[in-house]
Amino acid sequence: MDHPILNDDSWKDPIGQARLGINRRHFFGKTATGIGTAALASLLTRDGQAKSIGLPDLPHVAPKAKRVIYLFQNGAPTHTDLWDYKPRQAKMHGTPVPNEYFAGKRFSTMTKDPTGKLMLAPVEPFTQHGQSGSWVSRFMPHTASIADELCFVKSMHTEAVNHAPGISFFLSGAEIPGRPTLGAWLSYGLGIESENLPGFVVMTSVSKGTSCGQIFYDFYWGSGFLPSKHQGVKFRGQGDPVLYLANPNGMSSKMRRGLLDDIAAINELKFKQAGDPEISTRISQYEMAYRMQTSVPELTDISSEPQHVLDMYGPQVEEQGTFAYNCLMARRLIERGSRYVQLMHAGWDQHNSVTTELYTQCRDTDQPSMALVKDLKERGLLEDTLVIWGGEFGRTPFIQGDINNRPRWGRDHHPYAFTVWMAGGGVKPGISYGASDDLGMNAVENKVHVHDFQATLLHLLGIDHEHLTYRFQGRYFRLTDVHGHVVKDILA
Fold first, then answer.
1. For residue 25, is it within any domain?
2. 237 in a domain, yes or no?
């Protein structure tokens, strides 16, 4: 007698339904259309290796970028000290902020009511650079040297006033954790190009000795309600980049291959029974891990890099876990087929350290950021690789703390105007788009909301942000939630 679980017609029988505990996943896995089998087949090649080919209707428009490297600066870099030059801010140093600049605005609980807060001049002077004449602070001399490659967006604004909601908003389109992040959406929509490395990779770093780092929550690279195969793979900052890739003691590669084949056969059988997409994720992740046994050591072996390239990234490039090392790894990852690499560097939360730790942050990130852009350009990769630099919001043009105690000067969270820059991947080089007011307090010209930024990023990758959706709990969700428009003026 056939076992009911292995009987393809058992789902039709009421008794068989009860014995199987049938649910919607069983149904869709067993229908005559073969949804379950077709889904599994799309994951596997003839040799059993996992692939992801994305959605059939993408791209919606001709893409200008094929991949993204997001240099996310956790903690909110101070735009008024780095990128957004405002002469009046310096002239008003030590005087109260005019009330009309903050009327009706919400600030963090550390500031609460900004009435009487004193304006704080930029800590370092600004100068113009390149043919574009872009204003950049002396904090960032290396980035200033590539000003003509950069597209500064100086009219960013957001809704969040605290770090985790602000970061989540930028990366997932929602302040509350649980939505798919940008890399997961790209993996779901566009698929994965490499069979040997993840399409979505995350690396984190923090400057040594900093006192103001943020926590790296896993939901910053989560897949939300998308199948979990789309979540980011985090490479560690010390030791083996990915745990458990090496064969256990006493197990040969041939033995491991046979074990994986047997496990895949069992999982395939279970997939045919249940149609659960998480089973296909399990199959694909086992296969990816097997292939990463070879690809990850090759990826992280930088002995073949020319010395002048290593020198360009700066003195920390060979130190695993630093921002410089991660920037070099990002270039090597996208060369090998990863589509989206997210580097997160914490420590920009300068509530009382713009005259101290801001120097450390800039020293550790300025040169590697420049080197990444130059390196990509020299290799012919910048044209279709979009590089993004920015944080979750800006920092107040007024002081947090005692203006008479310069070693403890600081700035609070500021969502109403801040700057991000982009390079390559179809954006216009050497421009500054949008503007804040004369004190750097509020975006006033060509304002760019977070959802506008996300819509533009997706457009550069060939995606109409209104049509990349996923149905969950009765509603179609998208990265840009219910609004957002493409900022066409920055497109090359």
1. no
2. yes
What are the pLDDT digits (tens) for 134-156? 999 999 999 999 999 999 999 99
Alpha-carbon distance of 182 to 171, in angstroms, equals 5
User: CB atoms < 10 A from the CB of 392, how many?
Assistant: 29
Domain count, the chain: 1
Closest of 104, 168, 163, 137 to residue 441, by C-alpha? 104
For 25-38, what is the mean pLDDT?
Answer: 39
Q: Tell me, yes or no, whether 428 lies in a domain.
A: yes
- Tens-place pLDDT, residues 334-361: 999 999 999 999 999 999 999 999 999 9
Q: What is the CATH number of the domain that holds 168?
A: 3.40.720
Domain holding 400, by residue range, is 67-245+304-490
- Which residue carries 């500031």 as its tokens? 111
Q: Provide the whole-model pTM.
A: 0.88
Measured distance CA(345)–CA(332) in Å, rounded: 19
Average pLDDT over the chain reads 88
- Kindly report the number of other CB atoms within 10 A of residue 416's CB atom: 24
pLDDT in tens, 39-75: 343 444 434 444 567 899 999 999 999 999 999 999 9
> Is 411 a domain residue?
yes
Render 398-442 in DSSP notation, one character per residue.
Answer: B-BS-TT-GGG-B--EE-SSEEEEEESTTBPSSEEE-EE-TTS-S
CA 131 to chain centre: 30
